[in-house]
Amino acid sequence: MGQHKLLGISGSLRAGSTNTKLVKAAAAIFDPAEFRMGSIDMPLYSGDVEEASGLPAAVDTLAEDIAWADAVVISTPEYNKLLSGALKNALDWVSRSKIKPWADKPVAVMSAAAGRAGGERGQWTLRLALNPFQPRVIAGPEFMLAASGSAFAEDGTLKDAGSADFLGKLMDNLRTEIR
Fold first, then answer.
1. At what angle do helices 161-176 and 18-30 cross, to 10 degrees?
2. N-term to C-term CA, the chain
3. Rounded-to-integer distance, Cα 58 and Cα 146, Å
4. If you average pLDDT over residues 8-12, what whole number do you get?
5. What count of other Cβ atoms lies within 10 Å of the Cβ of residue 105?
6. Residue 12 and residue 78: Cα distance in Å, rounded?
7. What 3-state DSSP class applies to 75?
8. CB count, 10 Å around CB of 47?
9. Residue-wise DSSP of 44-94
10. pLDDT digits (tens, 9 = 90+) for 49-106
11. 156 by DSSP, 3-state: which?
């Protein structure tokens, strides 16, 4: 088998997002892999928009990126105890794609947040939001990065070796789920 293809999705649109940093750190640990970052920057879902002009190009691109990947790693922030609206919106849009890219796809879920729980509820609601699409969401280990604003070194790696090792276990489990 050749090199694996890994797609990363950050649930944050913010430049400098710690969730984006966490996805990239996970990809570096998962390495070797052909890595691609997916984008969730798309208009709010509207059936009227879909009916009038079809799926936006950004939706088609994300659906194709998911289909391309052997595995997906998603990191979500926690906004008011839930996954981000931007991430939920992207999931809703992609559900309208004809290619149904999530089915049986191995997915690792994680979260990064400023609070001490590290986005635990945001991660739980992401798992719930993925259920209708029937991916193979990795059970664990559950990785939640607390105080994420100070968790990364200048080079994008996790400062705490224990956190990096724990993230490595999640990436190892994701890799073993690739068929």
1. 60
2. 10
3. 31
4. 98
5. 22
6. 10
7. strand
8. 8
9. PP-HHHHHHH-S-HHHHHHHHHHHH-SEEEEEE--BTTB--HHHHHHHHHH
10. 999 999 999 999 999 999 999 999 999 999 999 999 999 999 999 999 999 999 999 9
11. coil
Beta-carbon-side half-sphere exposure of residue 166 (alpha carbons within 13 Å): 14
For the ranges 40-44, 114-118, 130-134, 146-150, which has the lowest average pLDDT? 114-118
Strands (DSSP E) found in 78-159 = 106-112, 136-137, 143-145
Q: What is the pLDDT of residues 109-130, one digit of tens each?
A: 999 998 888 889 999 999 999 9
Give me the residue label for tokens 């609070």. Answer: 115
Q: Which helix (H) or strand (E) holds 152?
A: none
Judged by phi (left if over 0) then psi (alpha if -120 to 50, else beta), residue 129 lies in alpha
